[in-house]
Amino acid sequence: MNRRTFIKTTSLAGIATTLLPDAHLTSQIAHRKSPLVINTWDYKRIVPETAYNTIVAGGSVIDAVEQAVRIPETDPEITSVGIGGYPDRDGNVTLDASIMDGEGNCGSVMFLEHISHPISVARKVMEKTEHVYLAGEGAMQFALENGFTKEDFLSPAAQKAYQEWLQQSNYKRAKTDEGNHDTIGLIAMDTNGNMAGACSTSGLAWKIRGRVGDSPIIGAGLYVDNEVGAATATGIGEAVVKVCGSFLIVELMRQGKSPQEACQLALERILHKQPKYKSDEGFLVGFCAFNKDGKYGGMSYKKGFEYSVYTDGKYEVVKAESLVK
Ligand code: SD4
Q1: Among the atoms of ligand 1, which is closest to the Cα of residue 181?
Q2: What is Dmax (Cα atoms) for the chain?
């Protein structure tokens, strides 16, 4: 090897060391060749896969997120979304949902009763009205005018849990580890970088009638911006609302934070502003996010949160890091 070859070789090696990302990053960057779908919790492979396959089949990313979120909405075994949802303290199932695309279009319904696919009503709000939010009776009226049917649903499991809860009628918020915290927030990006997200929940079990959480609030439970990335949330909605959690994460990513760092900073912001949550044994918030480069991350306050990732034809459930170990 002469000096010239040596210099060329070593400087290339230097560049390789400096510029090549680590293995984890490399695998995530490769995802840009494929749609990327992330959702809170593990709703089974079928949920993110439906979004992924919708995109692969040529569907729009907004169709993808809507179709995927419709699945848990009509699964009676899921006690925190749609028709299987646990009721409020008066025995009514009231639903919240939002949908957003990466260009800033969005729609949302909240405190909606008797309609089994709130995410599809939210999409209609987005596409057929000048508004973003419809609530309660008005949201139901809009749904009925747009072809949705009125149903009564309180699943046998929800009915049983409600009867048990009534024995004590403990008006404190139920603990988040009692199976009442599995909001679905699902965010997706196609191979052209178009993003969308959808979020749907029956909210916290035994809530005060009329209570609305973070999931239908744009910027709290969900935020999407094609120029940056997308984020979604699960857990105690009031805490997420107080810091505009998903918007905060997207803005932190805009400033150069990785999705993982941005999720962590948003959690830290909640605890910084509201330290009372540290001594609240029922407190849990989890976020997940991706950026336009296809990097993703997720984090929760306490252990136990997981999120699902579907990309390159593969499904993975990631156990999220937590602030409290
Ligand atoms: C809410 N974030 O209504 C929702 C509750 C939930 O997982 O189930 N989150 O506050």
Answers
A1: 8
A2: 86
Q: Within a domain: residue 165?
A: yes
CA of 286 to the centre of ligand 1 (A): 10
Residue with CA at minimum distance from ligand 1 atom 3: 203
**Cα of 66 from ligand 1 centre, angstroms:** 18
Radius of gyration of the chain (CA): 21
User: Which is catalytic among the residues 50, 54, 183, 201?
Assistant: 183
Sheet with 296-300: strands ordered across: 222-225, 229-235, 285-291, 296-300, 321-322
In a domain, 8, yes or no: no
With beta carbons less than 8 A apart as the criterion, state whether 62 and 69 touch: no
User: Does the active-site annotation cover 183?
Assistant: yes
Contact 122, 66 (CB under 8 A): no
The parts of the chain modelled with pLDDT lower than 50 are 1-31, 176, 178-180
Query: Which atom of ligand 1 is the closest one to the Cα of 207?
Result: 3
Measured in angstroms, how far is the CA atom of residue 182 from the centroid of ligand 1? 7
- Domain limits for position 248: 21-313+316-320
Report residue 272 as tokens: 């910084």
Within-domain flag for 7: no
Please, are residues 189 and 52 in contact by the beta-carbon 8 Å criterion?
no
Residue 303: give its domain's CATH number: 3.60.20.30
pTM: 0.89
CB-based contact 132:218 (threshold 8 Å): yes
Residues 201-245: tens digit of each pLDDT = 999 999 999 999 999 999 999 999 999 999 999 999 999 999 999
Using alpha carbons, select from 166, 149, 182 the residue that is nearest to residue 88. 166
Indicate left, alpha or beta for 301 from its phi (over 0: left) and psi (-120 to 50: alpha).
Answer: alpha
Best probe residue, ligand 1, of 42, 80, 204, 270 (max atoms within 8 Å of C-beta):
204
213 occurs within a structural domain: yes
Say how many domains are in the chain.
Answer: 1
| Cα(98)–Cα(202) distance, integer angstroms | 12
